[in-house]
Amino acid sequence: MNNPQKINTVMYALLVERQMNNFSVLEARDALLNTNGIPKNLDKARRLIYRQILYFENKGWLTSKGIGRDRRYSQTSKFKELTTQPKQRLQQIPLNKLTLQSYAVLDKERKQYLADLDIVLGEIDEYQSIIERLPELEQTVLPLYERAQKRSDLLLRKVNIYENILDSIKE
Fold first, then answer.
1. DSSP string of 59-118?
2. DSSP label at 5?
3. CA distance 11 to 35
4. Superkingdom of the source (predicted)?
5. Spatial distance between the Cα atoms of 8 and 50, rounded to a whole number of angstroms
6. Residues 59, 62, 68, 69: is their CA dihedral positive or negative?
7. pTM of the prediction?
8. Is 80 exceeded by the pLDDT of residue 130?
9. Which of 11, 41, 117, 131 lies in the 20 to 30 Å Cα band around 21?
10. Do the strands 62-65 and 72-75 form a parallel or antiparallel pair, or are they unpaired?
11. Cα–Cα distance between 82 and 71 in angstroms, integer?
């Protein structure tokens, strides 16, 4: 016996449970708007369904006829022969106390790196000012200026890393 093919829960609801055939993207969207797990935003729902339809077309499970809004999608015999089951949705990890504490620690460190970056950028501006006002000191100041630039690059990378991590925790 073949292992069941796991497919997107939205497409499973459409093609298997509701047995939709010869449908448009908008008809599929409307059929699922009241179902849990689909965005209530019409545009997001349409895009979600359209992407899944394209995926199914590439797999050879759906065919299309027509163009533009008149395009209709039908199940192929290849899809009808499949044993399918819906993919299990990943459970979103709730923000627990530990995650919130980690977030606070990371945010504090990010703020410290931002403050350090502001200081280093101020130093860079001052080095540039000194080099412009006193060109005879350029040989002495230039290594300090370059070291400050490298430090600012490092701090900016760290700030970006922390912001990416904090953004992913928020989501």
1. HTSEEEESSGGG-EEEE-HHHHHS-EEEPPPPPPPP--HHHHHHHHHHHHHHHHHHHHHH
2. E
3. 12
4. Bacteria
5. 12
6. negative
7. 0.49
8. yes
9. 41
10. antiparallel
11. 24
Task: Dihedral sign for Cα 128, 131, 137, 142, please.
Answer: positive
User: What type of residue is 43?
Assistant: D
Q: What is the pLDDT of residues 46-92, one digit of tens each?
A: 888 889 999 999 999 999 999 888 899 999 999 888 888 888 765 55
Q: How far apart are CA 8 and CA 89, in angstroms?
A: 9
∠ Cα 120 123 127 (to 5°)? 140
The residue to which tokens 């895009």 are assigned? 47
For residue 111, the model assigns a pLDDT of 95
The token pair that represents 18 in the structure block: 């509701």
How far apart are the C-alpha atoms of 35 and 50, rounded to whole Å?
A: 17
Which helix (H) or strand (E) is 130 found in, with range? helix 97-133
pLDDT for the residue 161: 94
Residues 30, 45 contacting (CB under 8 angstroms): no
Gyration radius from the chain CA atoms: 28
